[in-house]
Amino acid sequence: MSANKKARAKGQQIKGKAKEAAGRATGKDRLTAEGRAEQAKGDAREAVEKAKDTFRR
What we know:
Layout: H1 3-26, H2 29-56
Helix pairs in contact: 1-2
């Protein structure tokens, strides 16, 4: 997996966790949902990169 793409996926996951936590703290459901969505995007991006690595070997 490319280090750059891996870092981008982790960054998106972390950003999503922060948004979710902020949404919960302030009681804003929309912000919580956005955070979960960002985490899911980061998870999906990471899974794609792992699959690419598997097929390359």
